[in-house]
């Protein structure tokens, strides 16, 4: 008995147990979703709610894809997330370069001004934003999401780039200047290549953000043909009982891009999402 | 060189697009929120200026107090569970004794990258009173605690808060783990040599040194809880009755369902004040001086 207790202590069994138990709690709902995306209603509700499907019903996926609007939602998500990534990166990298390296009187103020945006929760400005989108005739176009998404990613992205630009030694620009390169040339051929790692991180960050964004989308988009995946999937709520398998399949399809990105670049994704603490703290 | 870096045209080209977009889409709206909270306004016409009547009505509205209370409950639940569990997990992982650390880390973090709609739909089916996973689990374990988790006005807000707690725990885990890694090795080494146990060292040295990390986690969790909206929107629609309303939900309802944009703006303005207060209090309580090492 004493031997057993010692053994348990050495292996930290309770701690290890807790760690794996939480891991299961964390992942199981996702695995359960993938399981039931391959089952029929009978198996989901009665015969086999927890385990691996007895018969892999891939037709759920083709049903989800063809019967419901999943391809449309998916394409919309790709368009919105893609345009947001490009727009936000271009604007913020230019702004932060000027704020960090170029010499002008108001640069400190401009930098602080943009930084304030990080502390504004989108919920708080939803009403005026909805009115603005309407007045600019953006309502029910892709612009209704893309323009606010870009604006909302500017603050955070600029601040990360700002930090990177500040850490580059002055000599680089000096030699570029002496060699007769223009400021634009210096920016494109010298500065951008240096901050490539930060660019990659922020591309992932903005992509995940805009792919999953819900609050703005639900208020600004009502037209069925413009709905992104987080909105489109709400539609299944009404038809819960009819085809659970297809619903699971649609949700799996919606999660695939972000989960895949995380699997491939887990380190960068964690960095991307946690880099904010260093800036905000 | 001075001329090179002081190129006015270049500065304008580089900064104006971002500044303009930010001003129109972020800064102007926040001003509008406060301004419009003083109006009776339907979102279409010019509206009438009514001073602080919207706020007066808000303070007379019982739903406002429900929303405030729910925001606090939501914030409290997610703060305690997320930061509590994330700390334990991060300290154990950083300790390096447990096997399979990479797999564990991925497991903890994966819900963070899922869409909130997917997560809420999943938990709707888990909570479901008739065929939900939760009740089935109790059945297997032989516990008679089956119920319809989301239709009781007492348990609904707690059930919804746990979904958020579950989804974003991994985010706090990653933050705290990064915090642990940034504390230099020699401090823990010194504690070990002085005969401190691991727990003592973590409590007396590690956690105080990570004040900045914890401050950020606290601000993030508390303001996130006060702002909660998507979870309610998808899972309960504010119900049963108004039992899962939060301030954001109240704002959404008043403006986009009932058409009282001024009243909604007042709710949003209260939310700003609430979040600001929370941030100030947290900054006051945690880390009065910055620790450098």
UniProtKB/TrEMBL annotation, chain B:
Residues 68-282 form the ABC transmembrane type-1 domain. It is a multi-pass membrane protein. This is Sugar ABC transporter permease. SUPFAM superfamilies: MetI-like (SSF161098). InterPro entries: ABC_transporter_permease (IPR051393), MetI-like (IPR000515), MetI-like_sf (IPR035906). The keyword Cell membrane applies. It is found in: Cell membrane. Coiled coil: none annotated. Belongs to the binding-protein-dependent transport system permease family. The chain crosses the membrane at residues 12-31, 72-94, 106-126, 156-178, 213-234, 261-282. Keywords: Cell membrane, Membrane, Transmembrane, Transmembrane helix, Transport. It comes from Paenibacillus helianthi. The keyword Translocase does not apply. Pfam families: BPD_transp_1.
């Amino acid at each position: 008995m004493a031997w057993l207790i010692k053994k348990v202590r050495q292996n930290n069994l309770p701690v290890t147990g807790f760690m794996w138990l939480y891991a299961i709690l964390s992942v199981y709902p996702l695995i359960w979703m993938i399981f039931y995306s391959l089952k029929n209603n009978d198996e989901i509700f009665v015969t086999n709610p927890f385990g691996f499907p007895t018969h892999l019903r891939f037709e759920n996926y083709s049903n989800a894809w063809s019967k419901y609007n999943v391809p449309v939602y998916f394409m919309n998500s790709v368009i919105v997330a893609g345009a947001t990534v490009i727009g936000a990166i271009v604007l913020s990298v230019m702004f932060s370069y000027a704020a960090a390296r170029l010499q002008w009187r108001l640069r400190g103020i401009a930098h602080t001004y943009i930084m304030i945006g990080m502390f504004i929760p989108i919920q708080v400005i939803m009403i005026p934003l909805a009115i603005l989108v309407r007045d600019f005739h953006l309502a029910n176009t892709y612009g209704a999401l893309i323009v606010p998404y870009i604006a909302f990613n500017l603050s955070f992205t600029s601040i990360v780039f700002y930090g990177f630009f500040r850490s580059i030694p002055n000599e680089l620009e000096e030699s570029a200047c002496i060699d007769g390169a223009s400021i634009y040339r210096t920016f494109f051929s010298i500065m951008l290549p240096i901050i490539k790692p930060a660019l990659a991180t922020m591309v992932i960050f903005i992509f995940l953000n805009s792919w999953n964004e819900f609050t703005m989308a639900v208020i600004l988009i009502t037209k069925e043909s413009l709905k992104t995946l987080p909105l489109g999937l709400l539609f299944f709520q009404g038809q819960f009982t009819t085809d659970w398998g297809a619903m699971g399949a649609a949700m799996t399809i919606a999660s695939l891009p972000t989960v895949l990105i995380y699997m491939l670049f887990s380190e960068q994704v964690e960095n991307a999402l946690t880099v904010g603490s260093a800036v905000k703290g | 060189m001075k001329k090179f870096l002081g190129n006015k045209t270049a500065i304008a080209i580089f900064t104006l697009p971002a500044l303009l977009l930010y001003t129109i889409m972020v800064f102007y709206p926040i001003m509008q929120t406060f301004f419009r909270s003083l109006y009776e306004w339907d979102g279409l016409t010019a509206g009438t200026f009514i001073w602080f009547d919207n706020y007066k009505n808000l303070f007379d509205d019982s739903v406002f107090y429900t929303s405030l209370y729910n925001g606090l409950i939501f914030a409290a639940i997610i703060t305690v569970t997320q930061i509590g569990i994330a700390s334990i997990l991060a300290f154990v992982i950083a300790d390096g004794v447990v096997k399979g650390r990479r797999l564990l880390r991925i497991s903890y973090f994966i819900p963070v990258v899922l869409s909130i709609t997917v997560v809420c739909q999943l938990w709707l089916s888990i909570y479901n009173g008739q065929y939900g996973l939760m009740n089935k689990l109790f059945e297997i374990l032989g516990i008679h605690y089956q119920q319809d988790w989301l239709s009781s006005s007492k348990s609904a807000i707690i059930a919804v808060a746990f979904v958020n707690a579950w989804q974003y725990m991994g985010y706090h885990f990653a933050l705290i783990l990064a915090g642990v890694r940034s504390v230099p090795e020699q401090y823990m080494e010194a504690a070990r040599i002085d005969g401190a146990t691991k727990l003592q060292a973590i409590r007396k040295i590690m956690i105080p040194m990570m004040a900045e990390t914890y401050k950020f986690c606290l601000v993030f969790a508390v303001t996130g809880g006060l702002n909660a909206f998507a979870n309610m929107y998808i899972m309960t629609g504010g119900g049963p009755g108004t039992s899962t309303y939060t301030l954001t939900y109240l704002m959404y309802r008043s403006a986009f369902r009932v058409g009282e944009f001024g009243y909604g703006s007042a709710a949003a303005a209260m939310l700003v004040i609430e979040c600001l207060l929370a941030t100030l209090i947290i900054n006051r309580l945690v880390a009065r001086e910055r620790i450098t090492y």
